[in-house]
Amino acid sequence: MQFLAKKSSHPLPRETWDGSPQIYVTRGVDIVLGNYIKDLRTIAVYGGAGQGKTCLIRNTLHSMNIPEVYISCNFHWSLANLYGAICKAAGFAYVTIAKTVDTSGAGITAGIKKKFDDYEAELGASLSGSTSTETQYQPLEFSVSETNDIIQALNTFDGYIVLDNFQYLSRQTTRDFLSKLKYFHDNHIHFIISGIWTDIADILRYNNNLRDIFYELNIGRWEKGDMHEILQEFCKRYNIAIDKHVSDALIAATYNNPGRLQHILFDSYYKRSLQRPSNTGGRLPVDPSSFPDADYKDILTQFSKGFDRTSLDLYRWFVYVVLATDETIVKNGIPFSHIAKVIREKHPKSSEKKPILDYYIARALDYIVPLQINKGIQPFLFYYNTKESKLMITDYDFLPWRNNPANRSTLLTALNLPEEAPDE
Fold it and tell me: How far is C-alpha 222 from the geometric centre of its chain's CA atoms?
């Protein structure tokens, strides 16, 4: 179906965004991303939840004065929905055209509101005749399901299209989009794709022809020095001081998660400002233990149920592996060999004569992302790195909760799982 789109005279307005979170600290990855952008390549930026992927991308584009079209992906989108979201963010609006005649005989062509795939068009009008002339939009007929039409519509855009939370797209939409991505690249339309993959191979497995056009950037974990820099900038900006032993404890409690650190800092500052509104300077008392960890019990309980109850209940046993395995292994990614070994040792339906086969375990791991989408788990807790064959923790806020012995014991009991640790 064809749609008449209206395009404003400034089709790609920059959003009113200052390019940073409350406290933004540049790192080496900022320079790397800037160099990639200068090369006009398609870029895949990946890393765990809360590590600053979106802030990094938008701050870099903003500092380089490069226009952006920003999209946050949705699991329910088809390829046409994704294209439609890109066009809407780029300033297009979907309209039907009605032609009427006024009393003076002048023709009036008006944009009529039309609902299209959950995007509601703005109103616009083009009037001609003896009374007045106003041209707001230039009509352009194209179909949001046709890649060539989208390329033609965006051919004047000299910037980057940012597809954030790319991991939330369905597998079919991911395949469909990646199969078309080289056409965009060849027509000088460039994307930054951001997600929680732990390796670019998890994208390229859908289309190996993309390897030559992709630059990848793993933003990595934040180091202790980076976290101290956030603290120093916070103290400087708000004219406060935090004792060093408190700073060290705070960083340790946040597991080098910059988002979690800023949440605690600003929450502490806000509470203190309510108590002392006339004096916001001085020493800021921060007690990391006063900020409870998120409760992952219900999330993991839902995850453990899988898509449906099966005789093996492998997702329930994946929870056991994550909770019972040594912390160092969990932080670095749990190898498939370890997962299979633990399940064969502890699962009541696995025996020496009839062990649970790798095939069943691997197949269940391959569906960890669709399961979390199915359960509405956001951000994802887990991601299976197919290249390294490792189960990765991607929500770093989960680690403090997981490392609390009481939390582990309560959940293992509730899920009827053994409490003793597996043999390492």
Answer: 17
In whole angstroms, how far apart are CA 309 and each of 104, 251, 303, 315, 334? 71, 40, 11, 10, 24
Query: Looking up tokens 């180091």, which residue turns up?
Result: 223
Residue 105, CA distances (Å) to 108, 110, 121, 129, 130 in order: 9, 15, 28, 8, 9
Contact 294, 404 (CB under 8 A): no
- Give the span between the Cα atoms of 77 and 71, in whole angstroms: 12
Which residue has tokens 């007690």?
287
Please say whether the beta carbons of 113 and 30 come within 8 A. no
* Strands 190-195 and 160-164, bridge-based pairing: parallel
Mean pLDDT on 184-211: 82
Residue 129 has pLDDT above 50, yes or no: no
Question: For helices 258-275 and 244-253, what crossing angle results, to 10°?
Answer: 130
Instruction: Single out the residue of 343, 363, 328, 366 nearest to residue 423, CA to CA.
Output: 343
Q: How far apart are CA 52 and CA 50, in angstroms?
A: 6
Q: What is the separation, in whole angstroms, between the first and last Cα of the chain? A: 59
**Is 392 within 8 Å of 382 (Cβ atoms)?**
yes
* 196 closest CA partner among 41, 51, 42, 372: 51
Q: What is the chain's mean pLDDT, rounded?
A: 78
Flag whether pLDDT at 256 surpasses 50: yes
Packed helices 53-63 and 28-38: angle between N→C axes, nearest 10 degrees:
60
Q: Output the pLDDT for position 25.
A: 85
More confident call, 139 vs 394: 394
Contact 229, 222 (CB under 8 A): no
* Least confident range of 34-48, 207-221, 326-340, 352-366: 207-221
Is residue 190 pLDDT above 70, yes or no?
yes
Q: Are 200 and 214 in contact (CB under 8 A)?
A: yes
Record the pTM: 0.74
β strands within 298-393, DSSP E: 334-335, 382-385, 390-393
Element (H, E) at 125: strand 124-127
Burial (CB count within 10 angstroms: exposed 0-12, middle 13-18, buried 19+), residue 363: exposed
